[in-house]
Amino acid sequence: MDIIIIGLLLGATYALMAMGLQLQYGVARIxxxxxxxxxxxxxxxxxxxxxxxxxxxxYALIGVIPLAFAVNWAIYRVLIVPLVRRARNQGQLxxxxxxxxxxxxxxxxxxxxxxxxxxxxxxxxxxxxxxxLGEPYGLNRVAAFIGSLVLCLGLYLWLHRTRPxxxxxxxxxxxxxxxLVSINVTRASALAFALGGAVTAAGGxxxxxxxxxxxxxxxxxxxxALIIVxxxxxxxxxxxxxxxxxxxxxxxxxASLVDPGLTLAAAYxxxxxxxxxxxxxxxxxxxx
Amino acid sequence: xxxxxxxxxxxxxxxxxxxxxxTVSKGEIVVMLGANGAGKSTFLRAVAGxxxxxxxxxxxxxxxxxxxxxxxxxxEAGIALVPEDRGIFADLTVQENLILGAYPRRARPSETExxxxxxxxxxxxxxxxxxxxxxxxxxxxxMVAIGRAMMSAPTILMLxxxxxxxxxxxxxxxFRTLARIKDTGVGIFLVEQNARQSLAIADRGYLLxxxxxxxxxxxxxxxxxxxxRLAYLGA
Lengths: 288, 235
Prior knowledge:
Chain A is mainly alpha-helical. Helices cover 73% and strands 3% of the residues of chain A.
């Protein structure tokens, strides 16, 4: 039982992170391998904010979200737009983006190392137990879970209930037709990319409440987000949320029943199994 | 009024369209006939801002030069295109497709009226609001595509082979609908291979051959012209 609850608590943060990558890959069509670094940057920012001010890390969201939005917007405009303009087809764009953002991830790791050093960092926030069904759980995990759920729900409602959200989904479904209804695809993609980065960094803020991290941890989260997005199907945000919880559950199950060192290996095993059996993802459709 | 003045399009060194001039006014139906590969779709895509036009020609909408405008600005100028592949959002619902049609700034104030108008043209779309477009038949998808274009409150509606792939009965219904849209004051420019039915509802027509306009006349004269009958009407 406690495995299921810890898995669900973890899954919500994963879901938030996956929604970030989903916006970047599903709408803007940019496979961003520097996604995990954005998450870690959010965690570092929160660490710095918390140790300096001792205010609740939730307040760090107020600064981190707009800052990450602006940084990712700039990355899209400066680095990605020239690649989009130059690419002759989607395949070439994908290769270019993977190389460019892979390079970018090293730059970001370098900046984080230079600013914060190479230490493992963590801080103590709400580090007391809360009892759910008689079992103790870290209150910080529960707080991060609730924060993630609220952000996920907000993002989901924004995407499904507002005109700009609908426009982003239209670009995701059929970018060629988006111009026919007067959607500026470049601008919509920049918005999706920036929003995706902001959501990912917000995931970092929440994760930092219970996680020990260092500058090189980003790539682990990039890979996790990648697994979730592929697992859930590239075009469906509900699939990604489902996949995030599956990954959270699978990781905690393996960590507590087999060996904590095997969590990432288990995640990949799951990933490969899905790729072999349902390459279109859990909720994805086979493209005709 | 939509006015094309001598526009040309080249794909690499291949000439797809050369020196095409024509006009479409509000409240009339103009049809362009031509064989496969004559350049009909290229012309529509050039007007809609989806392919690059050669320097020299120009496209005017009510006197404003829109030659170099990007596709999303051309919709704002009042030109809506229903492409040959319909260009609809298959993974979204009928209602979402129609709301997206009203995304242009020009269409937002009149969104409710336009929705009412579209639903009276296609009552079926009203019953199917929540359905994913992907699960609909070809004829229903065509309704969604035309309905969505009408949601942008266009001055000129352009359609690329709208009858393609439709059963004969649906074809007749489609052309009847286009005539009703014309009666609301919208100018319609359509590219068709179904020459007989399109000339029957059209006011004027142009003949396109190998990237050039080779004839222009009233629809009645074209329908009775011996050469046109041989080339496009199969009689």
